[in-house]
Amino acid sequence: MSGHSHLTAPFATPLDIKNPILDIAASFWPDDRYTAFRTLYGAMRKLDDIVDEVALAPFGGVERRRATARLDEWLGCLHGSGARFPEAALARETLLSLRLPFAPWENLAQAMRYDLDQRGFPTFMTFARYTKGAAVAPATVFLQLLRHNESAESDAHARAIRSVARPLALFSYMTHILRDFARDFREGLVYFPADFRRRFGVDDDSLARAADGGADLRFVSMVAEYCRIASWYRERAGDAIVAFEGRLTDDGRFSLRLIWELYTQLFERIHERKFALPTEGLEIPRTEVLARILGAATRLGFPNATLTRGLTRLGMAV
Prior knowledge:
The protein has helices spanning 20-26, 31-52, 62-78, 86-98, 103-117, 124-145, 155-179, 181-186, 194-199, 204-211, 217-244, 250-272, 286-300, 304-313. By secondary structure, it is mainly α. The longest helix has 28 residues, at 217-244.
């Protein structure tokens, strides 16, 4: 994954930002930051739509070339050239108002160009480079939107943000890949890198059986190793958050810890399945999410009034 004049909500209806955990975490922010979050992540969702709309189009074809041109035009609008994409113009206004850098958006666009030009990842290293835009960039924007106790423009603060953004983004992104494997596979998307699959002898037939609920030992072994790597990033993210929390206000500390808690909750549910991934996605019941939120609030001593405001936004008021 993030005071200005346009703080009447830019989206009158609920917005699909493609990541409800981030929306939950941001719901405990003051109105101005929450509106900025919805503006920027709504813009990311619109940018992602450019790629999604040609997901089934052949690689190298005219539809993907046109999508690449639209992507470049969208990014140009973000930088102040043209006005075809109002959500890009609104994101630009928000970035300038909060004095946030444009670099994460360039990285995000680079990952989307990869999606338009390539199918899958030949190596784990290729995947890791891809996540700089697909996962670390959105996480960086979220961390930049947190309210800080010091100047967010210092070099030291930028380094501190990077130290949290990468492990937290990799843990979160790999958890998404595990949860959504079957659905992605049916849409022609495989996020497990080819060299990683070969290491365990997982071929296309093995993937297809796993997506239908018949995972074999090779697939289960591969997922177990993938979970081990994701767990390593989880631990590094937890350590980085502890080191970073002193820079944040109470709502920033709570929302950052909440992201880690809710992804851990989802990751634990995958572990409970003993690496046989769900065939229809995996959603955590709202009652369990609420329990995790309340538990984190109790441990951190989060103010009740701010907690109530966030839960009301989420329709979870107790």
